[in-house]
Design a protein that fits this description.
single chain, 149 residues, alpha+beta, GMP Synthetase, Chain A, domain 3, 4 helices, disordered N terminus
């Protein structure tokens, strides 16, 4: 890779990080996030022992943020995949920043990816801003892809 190209990538990464930092602690309406009580889980656990779970994770990995070359699952945007006994799927996700240009579209993209999975009865995708997304939520694969490892 040419030195100029590498420098351009770092500039893009730095701009991405600055954008995230500016938006981490605010909701879309500009109000501050509420402080969590100590010991309260920040993210509801997923139904990891459900037979559909791994297939749903793979479906999530087919959805990409158009501004970042990493799927939304490894990016850490999918917080919870909850699957009922009737195979009704509830997904809680976030975005990298409240001002994300695809905020209105990405939940639909995720529902469209999960809906066709054999056995899924219904899908509901909700966006949350609490807790705010942070770089520590990315998988090692995502960090490697983005050059943070």
């Amino acid at each position: 890779m040419k030195a100029g190209a590498q420098r351009g990538l770092w500039t893009l990464r730095e701009a991405f990080l600055i954008s995230l930092l500016n938006n981490w602690f605010s909701k879309p309406d500009g109000t501050q996030m509420q402080e969590q009580l100590e010991g309260t889980p920040l993210i509801k656990p997923s139904s990891t022992d459900h037979p559909l779970y791994e297939t749903l994770v793979e479906a999530c990995r087919t959805v990409y943020d158009p501004e970042i070359p990493v799927n939304i699952y490894d990016l850490g945007l999918v917080y919870t995949i909850e699957i009922s006994a009737e195979n009704e799927v509830e997904v809680t996700m976030t975005l990298t920043a409240p001002g994300c240009p695809v905020a209105g579209e990405m939940p639909g993209w995720l529902a469209d990816a999960i809906g066709p999975v054999e056995g899924v009865k219904s899908v509901n995708v909700e966006i949350t801003w609490d807790p705010p997304w942070g770089m520590e939520m990315m998988s090692d694969e995502a960090r490697l892809e983005l050059g943070f490892m």
